[in-house]
Amino acid sequence: SFSFTDNNLNLTSNNIELLNNTKFKEELNSLLGYFIRKNELFYSSRYKQTDMCLNSQYSYKDICQLLNYDSNLTSVLGGYRYNKETNTFPIFVNYEKNPNLNSTKYEDKFINKKIFSWESKKDRTIESKELSPLLNSKTNNVAIYLFVRKNNIDRGNEAKKFYFLGQLGVASTPKTVTKLIKENSKERKINYVDMQFYLYDELRQDIYDYLEANLAEEDPNENN
Predict the structure, then answer these.
(1) 186 and 210 within one domain
(2) Count of domains in the chain?
(3) What is 109-157 written as a DSSP string?
(4) What predicted TM-score, i.e. pTM, was given to this entire model?
(5) Is 182 in a helix, a strand, or coil?
(6) pLDDT interval class at 155 (50, 70, 90)
(7) How far, in Å, CA of 64 to CA of 61, rounded?
(8) Are residues 58 and 35 in the same domain?
(9) Same domain for 62 and 40?
(10) Residue 9 lies in a domain
(11) Of 85-89, 134-138, 149-153, 174-178, the least confident
(12) Do both 126 and 41 map to the same domain?
């Protein structure tokens, strides 16, 4: 066990005795080395005002903690969600879509390594209240953050990881778009908001290549 004195972590006599055990000492050094390397990789080069590192991978739970949310919002984050307390608007994207599910057929894609094209959830317009912080982000200094993963093959797994690709700025005038979709063998009209963002930090080439790989083969109609 350990004790705290004047904000210092102190070893008890039992721990000191264990350090005389060569095997224990080797295991302890190995464990400490692992956590030091993990900290350097994921947390040492913090991005802007966040506790995250650009291009590192994080789960929903990690993101809630590192964006300093009051609680774990994993179950309600969905594709995006504004957090009033931190004035942040994280956007989550599954880059590869299931071609058999209309509910996931959003035209989310990189036009290039600096421009990202995005669609809101269906049945939304530029008047939708949930999108107001996003559409007025420049005026209200809302920080928009982009998180992308290749696909959702681990759907339902709390540990699923997204690449943190940094902050976004609005690059085009948002517009409400209407299109026909087929649900349960019936066609219906839906509205959604279509817009483009610019990345504050150009997407790293290897991540761009990874996300774009084989998309055309899997969906012959569109690269999405």
Answers:
(1) yes
(2) 2
(3) EESSSSEEEEE--SS--TT-GGGHHHHTHHHHT-EEEEEEES--TTTT-
(4) 0.74
(5) strand
(6) low
(7) 5
(8) no
(9) no
(10) no
(11) 149-153
(12) no
Domain of 154: which CATH number? 2.30.280.20
User: Rounded to whole angstroms, how far apart are CA atoms 138 and 123?
Assistant: 24
Indicate the length of the chain as a whole number. 224
Rounded Cα distance, 30 and 19, in Å: 13
Q: What is the DSSP letter of 69?
A: -
Burial state string for 88-113 with b = 16 or more CB within 10 A and e = fewer than 16: bbbbbbbbbbbeeeeeebbebbbeee
Mean pLDDT of the chain: 82
Q: Is residue 25 part of a domain?
A: yes
d(CA 44, CA 52): 8
Q: Which residue range(s) make up the domain with 39?
A: 16-45
Tokens 């692992």 belong to 34
CA distance 101 to 99: 6
